[in-house]
Each structure stands twice: as structure tokens, then as C-alpha cells.
UniProtKB/TrEMBL annotation:
Residues 26-262 form the ABC transporter domain. One of its GO terms (molecular function) is ATP hydrolysis activity. CDD domains: ABC_Mj1267_LivG_branched. It holds the Pfam family ABC_tran. GO terms for cellular component: plasma membrane. This is Urea ABC transporter ATP-binding protein UrtD. It comes from the Bacteria. The gene is urtD. The lineage of its organism: Bacteria, Bacillati, Actinomycetota, Actinomycetes, Mycobacteriales. NCBIfam families: urea_trans_UrtD. Keywords: ATP-binding, Nucleotide-binding, Transport. The keyword Ribonucleoprotein does not apply.
Length: 269
């Protein structure tokens, strides 16, 4: 694995991360989530470095969303989840968010009646005194301008979010995470319901983000995974079944077996 210390801003992230061991990371050890008597996450270990664009795949019910829920404090779990050494397990969702870990949900959750900029403003902390001071001094904060630019929504900044196309709403959600300065982005099916063009644009966006952050993508779209993943974790029945490059997991017989016993990892959905 190459651990270069510098990289071009828009370079393609390398598997395992662009930034090196001393940069930010998310480490999960022996994670367990029980729902009553049912063990949805069963001893998961996962290490993600800054620069990873990690795809999390697996059959329905494998535990992918539950894993993200556990990382973001939405379901109780045991084990360890540390971000660059800070224990996240046991923190409340807003504290985890403030620690730099942000997520999106399968269904976009933006304020339809507010403009794109207002949504970003609220995500950044409008109403909180420091944000209001920032705004009073500088107008639209630079971080909002950057998020508009990164997500390609600059020309839609004054439109109500409710009239955006589906893909644009999903990009706005990602922009909201950028405004919060999330260093770890957990995205649940970011291209579900998108057309081909939107998928390509989203892939490029994730690639840009993955260069400097840690991006985890839960996805059923295997073509999208093959095009953009720097690394892949395959889950099944609450455990990590396989991990590695796209080629490595596609060639793993255990992975082929859970995908309907065929070698067609890539035909689901
Ligand atoms: N709140 C809950 N209470 C009980 N069981 C749950 C709960 N949430 C999820 N489960 C179960 O945990 C298992 C893992 O679900 P999860 O949604 O994490 O899977 P997934 O891999 O994200 O699946 P999909 O690809 O279909 O979204 C499933 O069997 C699901 O029914």
C-alpha cells in the first residue's frame, strides 16, 4: 500500500487511503448490536483511513444500515468505535456529529420549503451564536460557498430544496455534511433512484470527497461500486465476510456464494 503524504486535490483516492497512517481514521472493534434476541451486528472489526472511499455491500439484512446506525449513535451497541482515538460509543448522535462523523439516510431529509443556502446554513448551525456572528461579519460563510461549489449547487442556491431534482437533493444532503465539516461521511444508498448522469456526477463528487475524508458508501448498485470504490467490505449475517479491492472481493468464493451462489457479483438490483 502506498502511503503518500501529499496528493493532488482531485486525484483518484488510492485503496487504503491517500493520507497515511498518521491522518484521521475510524476504527471499529468487536462491534455487537442486539435487537432483543436477534444479533444484527456480530463482532464487526473495521478500519477506515482518511482517503478511503469504502463501499459496504452485502445482501438485504446483512446489517449495513445497522452498522451506520451504531456508528452514529442511533442504536445501542457494545465494542469500540474510535475516531482518531476518540471513543464514539456511548456518545449522543449530536456529539458524534460534532466529533466529525456525519451521515445521510436512504430517503433525502432536507427542508423542502427552505432554499438550498438556507438548508446549508441550518446544517452549519444557524441560530447558534458563533454562526450568527460569522454570518453578521462575512455574509454567507465561506464553508457554505465551498459546499455549494463542491456539490455543484451554486446555480441553485436560491431555489427551494423542494423543487430540486432527486439527485440534487441528495447532493444537498452531502453539502450539509460538508458544512458541518464532517471528516467521516457515511452515505446510505446515495445513488438509489438516480439516473445514469446523476450517478456519474455523484461518483465524481464522492471521489473528490474521498481524497480528503473518509467516505463509507452503503450501496446495492454494483456497477457504481466497481467504478468508484477504492476498497470494499462485504457483510453477511451481521459479520464481515470479505474485505479488499473490488477485484479481490469479486473473486472471493464466499462472496460469490452469498450473492445467490453465482459469480455475478454485480447483477443484484
Ligand atoms: N430496530 C430493529 N429491530 C429489530 N430488528 C432490526 C431493527 N433494525 C434492523 N433489524 C434487523 O437487523 C438486520 C439487519 O438490518 P439492516 O437494515 O442493517 O440490513 P441492511 O444490510 O442494511 O439491509 P438492506 O440492504 O436491505 O438495507 C435485519 O434482519 C433487520 O430486519
Amino acid at each position: 500500500m502506498t502511503t503518500a503524504h501529499t496528493h493532488e486535490p482531485n486525484s483518484v483516492p488510492r485503496p487504503g487511503g491517500n493520507a497515511g497512517m498518521e491522518s484521521q481514521y475510524l476504527e471499529i472493534r468487536d462491534l455487537v448490536v442486539d435487537f432483543g434476541g436477534f444479533r444484527a451486528i456480530d463482532g464487526v472489526d473495521l478500519t477506515l483511513f482518511q482517503g478511503d472511499l469504502r463501499f459496504l455491500i452485502g445482501p438485504n439484512g446483512a446489517g449495513k444500515t445497522t452498522l451506520i446506525d451504531a456508528i452514529t449513535g442511533l442504536v445501542p451497541a457494545t465494542g469500540d468505535i474510535t475516531k482518531s482515538g476518540t471513543q464514539l460509543l456511548g456518545l449522543k448522535p449530536h456529539q458524534i456529529n460534532r466529533a466529525g462523523v456525519g451521515r445521510t439516510f436512504q430517503t433525502p431529509s432536507v427542508f423542502d420549503n427552505l432554499t438550498v443556502t438556507q438548508n446549508l446554513d441550518i446544517a452549519g448551525g444557524a441560530g447558534r451564536s458563533f454562526w450568527n456572528r460569522l454570518r453578521a461579519r462575512h455574509g454567507i460563510p465561506e464553508i457554505v460557498e465551498q459546499a455549494l461549489e463542491t456539490t455543484g449547487l451554486t446555480h441553485h442556491r436560491d431555489r427551494p430544496a423542494g423543487i430540486l431534482a432527486h439527485g440534487q437533493k441528495k447532493w444537498l444532503e452531502i453539502g450539509m455534511l460538508l458544512v458541518q465539516d464532517a471528516k467521516v461521511l457515511l452515505l446510505d444508498e446515495p445513488v438509489a433512484g438516480m439516473n445514469h448522469e446523476e450517478r456519474v456526477e455523484t461518483g465524481e463528487l464522492l471521489r473528490r470527497l474521498g481524497g480528503e475524508r473518509t467516505v463509507v458508501v452503503v450501496e446495492h448498485d454494483m456497477e457504481f461500486m466497481r467504478n468508484y470504490a477504492t476498497s470494499v467490505t462485504v457483510m453477511a449475517a451481521g459479520k464481515v465476510l470479505s474485505e479488499g479491492s473490488v477485484a479481490e472481493v469479486q473473486n472471493d468464493p464466499r462472496v460469490q456464494e452469498v450473492y445467490l451462489g453465482t459469480s455475478n457479483v454485480g447483477t443484484e438490483d
